[in-house]
Input
Amino acid sequence: YKTFEEAAFSSFEKYESSTEGEVYIIINPAWKGWLKVGMAVDAEDRCKGYQTSSPMRDYQIKYRKEFKDRRSAESTAHRRLKRICDNFQGEWFRINLEKAIEVINSI
Output
């Protein structure tokens, strides 16, 4: 690489295009009973990003599982969760944590 930017963006492109990663469950006590099911190359890194939008820095990773194709696994999890949850808004589901973990483990 000729410049730092070239090296940094090259690495970022590989990071984002990688199919491997995690499907995770994050909660925030401000929304009792709700949990977010998402995907990332690294759930810990993603959770740190959420903390910037919370003055209490109170998002917590409750579960994560690695997959060879995180996008496909997340899509399957969302589809299955929508069928059994009490309510949902985007990637947020009103469902028992243990049931959500069962769904992810069944993929």
